[in-house]
Amino acid sequence: LTPPPHAGRRKALPWIAALLAILAVGLGLYLGRDALARNPAPVAVPRVIGKAEPVAKQELQAAGLVAASQPVANAATAGTVVDQDPRDGTRPPNSTVQLMVSTGPGQVVVPNLRNYQQDTAASRLQAVNLKMGAINRVDSYEVPEGSVVSTAPKADAKVPPDTAVTLNISTGLTVVPNVTGMSQTKAETALSKVGLRRSINPVQDNSRIGTVIEQSYKAKEKVPIGTEVVLTVVRSHPQIRTVTKSVTIVPSPPSTSTTTGPSPTDEPTPTPSPTSTTEPPPEPTQ
User: Fold this and answer.
1) C-beta neighbour count of 12 within 10 angstroms
2) 286 falls in which pLDDT band (50, 70, 90)?
3) Percent of the chain with pLDDT over 70
4) d(CA 36, CA 29)
5) What is the mean pLDDT of the chain?
6) Phi and psi dihedrals of 42, rounded to 5?
7) Model confidence band, residue 39 (pLDDT cutoffs 50, 70, 90)
8) From CA 179, how far away is CA 219, in angstroms rounded?
9) Is 121 exposed, middle or buried (0-12, 13-18, 19+ CB in 10 A)?
10) DSSP readout, the chain?
């Protein structure tokens, strides 16, 4: 008998179906593996706060995570992990965990307190986590009494928090310079530089004109800022006067001697010689 024309096809269908099923399973396995490769299972984030930075990085690496460090000022020992992000939970493998690593106590900048009153200066120190230390009294011709001249550590210095800052407070006094012997101009400049005023007392003297020959406050004497120093300055030389004296000569009185003869020192007065006279002879009588 001749088999029906479609009998061979019917026998081949089960085999074709089985082959397609095998291909479908294989394709599913392949696609599933690719999906798993693209979406790996999340891993738990270990808690590493309080551990040293190298140890924390090793633990994160072992868990399939990547560590990134960020330095922060903290009271903890330098190199210690003081915080992390995320702190816990799960993350995909190779996710980054941010570590905050202490650099030690933070640095604070000392503020510039010059010319501030003591109470105000103390408040400004407290505002930046610093405290007021010792108080020193210093002379200054630039800063008023009771105000800050300088600090130790100096302004703009970087120091740990809670550092004590010494305040140098002005006494309001300045030291008088020695200006005697200077010209008036130089003396005025020297006084002005140390916060002093001046007034002039002009005098006559044999010293060079314009020279200071005396000052009202001694050199190195401490006086309040703004004190007036009187300068004695030569304005002219004394005038030289010629004095003329008149001399009157009084004659001595005449001698009162009682002797009649001439004094031994007197020369004799010559006696005049007699004059002879000749009378004419009488005329004859006729």
Assistant:
1) 9
2) very low
3) 76
4) 10
5) 83
6) -65, 155
7) confident
8) 8
9) buried
10) -PPPTTHHHHHHHHHHHHHHHHHHHHHHHHHHHHHHHHSPPPEEPPP-TTSBHHHHHHHHHHTT-EEEEEEE--SSPTTBEEEEES-SSEE-TT-EEEEEEE-SSPPEEPP--TT-BHHHHHHHHHHTT-EEEEEEEE--SSS-TTBEEEEESPTT-EE-TT-EEEEEEE-SEEEPP--TTSBHHHHHHHHHHTT-EEEEEEEE-SSPTTBEEEESS-TT-EEETT-EEEEEEEEEPPPP--------PPPPPPP----SSPPTTSPPPPPPPPPP--PPPPPPP-
Amino acid sitting at position 23: L
Residue 182 and residue 230 in contact, taking contact as beta carbons nearer than 8 Å: no
Both tokens of residue 282?
Answer: 């009488």
Contact 147, 117 (CB under 8 A): yes
- Taking the C-alpha atoms of residue 64 and residue 96, their distance in angstroms, rounded to an integer, is 10
| 281, amino acid identity | P
Residue 3 pLDDT class (50, 70, 90 cuts): low
Torsion of CA 8, 9, 12, 16, to 10 degrees: 170
Token pair recorded at residue 244: 């003329």
At 179, list the tokens: 């200006």
Mean per-residue pLDDT for 177-203? 96
In the block, tokens 């990085």 appear at 57
pLDDT at 74: 78
What's the CA gap between 33 and 212, in Å, rounded? 106
Q: How far is CA 257 from the centre of its chain?
A: 104
By the 10 Å C-beta count (0-12 exposed, 13-18 middle, 19+ buried), 57 is classed as: buried
As a dihedral over the C-alpha atoms of residue 128, residue 130, residue 135, residue 140, rounded to 10 degrees, the angle is -40
**Mean pLDDT confidence for 192-197:** 95
Instruction: Quote the CA–CA distance of 167 and 101 in Å, as a whole number.
Output: 35
